[in-house]
Automatic annotation (TrEMBL):
Keywords of this entry: DNA-binding, Transcription, Transcription regulation
A Pfam family: HTH_DeoR
Domain HTH deoR-type: 21-76
DNA-binding as UniProt keyword: yes
Sample GO molecular function, one term: DNA binding
Cited SUPFAM superfamilies: NagB/RpiA/CoA transferase-like, Winged helix' DNA-binding domain
Protein name in the entry: DeoR/GlpR family DNA-binding transcription regulator
Length: 294
């Protein structure tokens, strides 16, 4: 007896459209979050793969902490809105996506401009790509980001411009689990500054809550960063969409460009494009990044 048709949205994947593991898992995660849960049998039909392949994908997503396996399928992991993972815990997630996003965003930095980098593992990846952009003035509240430039400066030698030769300003403040500096000291330092572009990492992003974080002090510091920037570029992989932290600090309408990866569903992309002036998907449109500092 033939299997009943899959009732979820989106086309079934044919043999000629078999997805790579990372792409399959992005589809699975999107289904879990959108529908509140999925069954293994449904996913085998949608993805046109074996039961064992789906179970391996669910095991991988469960290890990442983004789904919870249940009998016959998986459901979303419901985290407290105040839960804030540490830098090391986050750095191992979506590494390929973060690297692609960082590479794309770095092309948006104009030599000689003043930029700001918030804390986060994606902005940390971005900092490494910015080492080759000459004459930048970089303001950051991330200890990790500042260390990328300082390490490159110490390693450099000879005369003339070299990697890491940017002028780096590290704000003071209280250190968070993600190695960001926040609080009144950081807020005061940022208040009097003006940036051509802010590259902003986020804990969560959604249509309803906008940009959010589980840390109240970090929310206020991020508000200051947004207010001080002429342009705001959010760098966030697809898993951040639909996540909501305790405190919102900006609406989607305050964002000029979102740089993300190809894991977003077509429906989500349409929702973002309705609210943001610019959506850049790393790896899909190399010439679409444009110039954020102009």
């Amino acid at each position: 007896m033939p299997a009943p048709p899959y009732e979820g949205t989106g086309p079934t994947v044919t043999d000629s459209q078999n997805l790579l593991a990372e792409q399959r898992r992005a589809v699975i995660l999107d289904e879990v979050r959108r529908r509140g849960g999925v069954r293994v049998q449904e996913l085998t039909r949608k993805l046109n793969v074996s039961d064992m392949t789906v179970r391996r994908d669910l095991d991988a997503l469960a290890r990442q902490g983004v789904v919870e396996k249940v009998h016959g399928g998986a459901v979303p992991v419901v985290e407290a809105s105040t839960h804030e993972p540490g830098f090391e815990a986050k750095s191992g997630l979506e590494q390929n996506a973060k690297e692609a996003i960082a590479r794309t965003a770095a092309a948006m930095a104009v030599p000689g401009s003043a930029i700001a980098l918030s804390g986060g593992t994606t902005t940390y990846a971005l900092a490494r790509h910015l080492l080759e952009v000459p004459d930048l003035t970089v303001v950051t509240n991330s200890v990790r980001v500042a260390d990328v430039f300082h390490t490159a400066q110490r390693a450099g030698g000879g005369s003339g411009p070299r990697p890491g030769s940017a002028t780096v300003v590290l704000t003071g403040g209280v250190r968070t689990p993600s190695d960001s500096l926040v609080g009144p000291v950081a807020d005061q330092a940022i208040r009097s500054l003006h940036f051509d572009v802010l590259f902003l990492g986020v804990h969560g992003i959604s249509a309803e809550a906008g940009l959010s974080t589980p840390n109240l002090a970090e929310a206020e510091t991020n508000r200051r960063l947004v207010r001080s920037a002429r342009r705001v570029v959010v760098v966030a992989d697809h898993t951040k969409w639909g996540t909501v932290g305790l405190s919102s600090f900006a609406t989607l309408e305050e964002v000029d460009t979102l740089v993300t990866d190809g894991g977003l569903s077509a429906r989500t992309r349409e929702e973002i494009e309705e609210r943001l002036p610019g959506l850049v998907v790393a790896g899909e449109s190399p010439d679409a990044a444009g110039t954020a500092g102009t």
